Amino acid sequence: MNPNRSVDGQPASAPSGAARVVAIDGPAGSGKSTVARTVAGRLGMAHLDTGAMYRGVAFAALEAGIDLGDGDALDALAERVDMAFDGSRLLVDGADATEAIRGQAVSTAVSPVATNAGVREVMVQRQREWAADHDGGVIEGRDIGTAVFPDAPVKVFLTATPEERARRRSDETDDVDLETLAAQIAERDERDANRAVNPMRPADDGVVIDTTDLNLDQVVDAVIALVPWVGEDRKSRPPAEPEPAADTVAEGTAPSLPRAFVRPAQPVVDAPALGIGARLGYRAISGTSRALAKVAYRSEIMGKERLPRTGPYILAPSHRSGLDFLLAAMVTRRRVRWMAKESLWTYPALGSFVDVMGGFQVNRGTADRRSLRVAEAVLADGQPLVVFPEGTRRNGAVVEGLFDGAAWLASRQRVPLVPVGIAGTEEAMSTGTRLPRPGKIVIWIGEPLWPDVPRAGRVPRREVTAFSDRLLPELQDAFDRANAHRGLTTLG
Ligand SMILES: Nc1ncnc2c1ncn2[C@@H]1O[C@H](COP(=O)(O)OP(=O)(O)O)[C@@H](O)[C@H]1O
Ligand SMILES: Nc1ccn([C@@H]2O[C@H](COP(=O)(O)OP(=O)(O)O)[C@@H](O)[C@H]2O)c(=O)n1
What we know:
alpha/beta, 17 helices, binds adenosine-5'-diphosphate, ATP binding, transferase, Cytidylate_kin, kinase, EC 2.7.4.25
């Protein structure tokens, strides 16, 4: 359903329509309009493109020959201009501006117009009034979840790489070449993200969806899975378009593929930076250790196909030896990061090595709060992370007494835990041994386990414990299989 009402009007009072707002923000070309339109259609809700409103003001300013640097003139224009949506067409002071607002002139003028505080104030008022009139709606823009409707129950921030966004835009037009489009988009992103009033950023309690490698249906399904009243709505009013498959709408259950691309936007500290040594040396060292492990330990890695190909995840290996760090890193060619105890840095050479391998410091024993925040940042940044759930090196064939750190991190960041059994390292180099002995090493990668938590919001403590309980038998299984395979191949 599309709005067919004027967005002009008297200053709005409290944003009473917020109860049913689906806020979709993000940079140009991330898919906001296409996704918002489709979600609105599927949910039988109204859709508001607030970018079109700012474009409408820019259009009116160009028509009136207003100097874009004249803030007072723009404020006054925003107050008096009449904008109305007629289906998908935008009327500005009665004239059809639908095509013109997508043209080059308006695209260049819109962001200086939108940085103007007075213009924004008027637009925000009209957007709130529109939502009150429509009992909510799917509203897209740059500041909907952060400034216009900070209480919206659904806040999504769509992203995609700048290259992909420019490519999408260039597929839509023959008038401008890819480089020019990429430069224009980069300039708009920069201005939108850095302006003083309501800059573009994900809401702290929202969800970020990276649409780079997703198709429209996957993004739409991921958004609809976040809408709390979907079940209710489907009982009471039929959707405007054919019913989506049942698994795409149940709350908290999402189709498996998009999960890797959806992450909570809760604030985390910056991911620990990688030093120059790590950036240059990691490949060389991991390549060498891979080759050495093959020759000296006839190492075998089983189940690589089960590893997620993209996105963040936690490798949760068994831990029987100091060699396990290197071996865990070998399961993927992607750079992994890992939590390393502080004491490793007391030996400068070892400390440098750990740096190069992507290690970052944590306090010994159960991971402390700050370390967990840093680890969260690594995952939020999309990097795979190694966390040994047994906490410290253990002996023997039994996996027991898991710490909750790995499950907590996976639940908070909504990423999978991958159980990894590493067999043979205790024999090769157990605690107290200085030099490794040759032998056979087998690494078994188990099925990734997803946390059973809602897509956004708090993670109940009991869910974390339950997740650790779920990991334990799977890690034991991976370790058993690795040990069994090692036994078989050693005998054979
Ligand atoms: N995964 C996707 N999600 C949404 N749109 C996509 C996706 N992949 C490609 N597109 C295309 O990208 C283009 C730009 O999307 P649009 O909705 O205009 O973005 P925005 O409103 O964020 O600028 C559209 O042509 C759309 O069909
Ligand atoms: N809520 C909003 C929506 C758009 N805008 C501005 O309006 C411009 C046009 O928005 P849009 O969504 O139509 O255009 P694209 O940049 O996605 O092509 C953006 O570049 C922003 O500068 C804004 O500041 N706040």
